[in-house]
Design a protein that fits this description.
It is built from 11 helices and 9 strands. By secondary structure, it is an alpha/beta fold. α1 crosses α2. The chain binds ligand C2E and calcium ion (3 copies). It comes from Duganella phyllosphaerae.
């Protein structure tokens, strides 16, 4: 038995060692990627349940790795969060989203607001000024930009965070609370924050309309959000049955593979151009 335990420890530390090395490798490659044109934003439409039209989009980060191909954030965002590189990534995303919005407008496309994801680590007193500078440089109106934040920020929710949010909203941007229901915040507690949109997490959408618990959770979120006059977006919608259920609940917008996966900028521009109903 003693031998087994020893072997177990050995295995454990080798595994930890392997992970630490992998982590370091991703970190250094990511640092390189930011300055080396390996990052890209993909866009996923948000569709109005009333009109069937595209009324927004979420910009999602991709890494075109020279050897490993297209990588999704699950691989590198956690590393970036831990190492602090998320600040550089966040700045890159803001810059590129604004540049793209500006280019699309110049090309005559009528643009719905584009959402970017913000890490809690980006949320310091300098954030509003940093965003204002980028918007101005690209001639983009603040109303064109939506900011998706997560519950971890609210839980940390000091007066300080509320003040920064108020400043962003006063500038004309709107805030959406991402992955709603997976964290610790309650709807009552939401009143403290100037958030206009709730995004129901995909984990509750998956089971609709067959899992009773998911239905109950989705119903509760939508009902209470309506009372707080929040817009409601459901993420990860994959089936017509899920869409039907969410429509009956009174959800405002849907996002998911049923309509489109996140696509490269040219493909998204083509969708906007066609102006088709999804
Ligand atoms: P998220 O903000 O919850 O983004 C939604 C995720 O769900 C995206 O994964 C999207 O591709 C995926 N998705 C959308 N519709 C469906 C569907 O119908 N079915 C399934 N199975 N998945 C769907 P993605 O692009 O891999 O991004 C993962 C997470 O990485 C995001 O989750 C977000 O938390 C983070 N992330 C992405 N881009 C950024 C960024 O620029 N900055 C920061 N801080 N985080 C980002
Ligand atoms: Ca998001
Ligand atoms: Ca989300
Ligand atoms: Ca999610």
């Amino acid at each position: 038995a003693a031998q087994n335990i020893e072997a177990g420890f050995l295995f454990y530390s080798e595994e930890m060692n392997r992970r630490a090395k992998e982590h370091l490798r991703i970190e250094s490659e990511l640092r390189h990627a930011i300055g080396n044109d390996e990052l890209a934003l993909y866009y996923q439409p948000k569709v109005s349940l009333r009109s069937g039209r595209i009324v927004g989009a979420e910009a999602l980060l991709r890494w075109r790795h020279p050897e490993r191909g297209l990588m999704t954030p699950a691989v590198f965002i956690p590393v970036a969060e831990e190492s602090g590189l998320i600040l550089d990534l966040g700045a890159w995303v803001l810059e590129h989203a604004c540049r793209q919005i500006s280019a699309w407008r110049a090309a005559g496309l009528s643009m719905p607001p584009i959402a970017i994801n913000l890490s809690a680590r980006q949320f310091d007193a300098g954030l509003p000024a940093r965003i204002a500078a980028v918007l101005e440089r690209h001639g983009v109106q603040p109303e064109q930009l939506n900011l998706e934040i997560t519950e971890s920020l609210l839980v940390r929710g000091t007066e300080h965070v509320v003040a920064i949010m108020n400043e962003l909203v006063a500038m004309g941007m709107s805030l959406a609370l991402d992955d709603f229901g997976t964290g610790y915040s309650s709807l009552a507690y939401l009143k403290k924050f100037p958030i206009s949109t709730l995004k129901i997490d995909r984990s509750f959408v998956i089971g609709l309309p067959f899992e009773e618990n998911d239905c109950a959770i989705a119903r509760a979120i939508v009902t209470m959000a309506q009372q707080l006059r929040q817009e409601i977006v459901a993420e990860g919608v994959e089936t017509p049955e899920q869409m039907r259920f969410l429509r009956e609940l009174g959800c405002d917008q849907l996002q998911g593979y049923l309509f489109s996966p996140p696509v490269p900028e040219a493909d998204f521009a083509a969708m906007l151009h066609e102006g088709k109903r999804l």
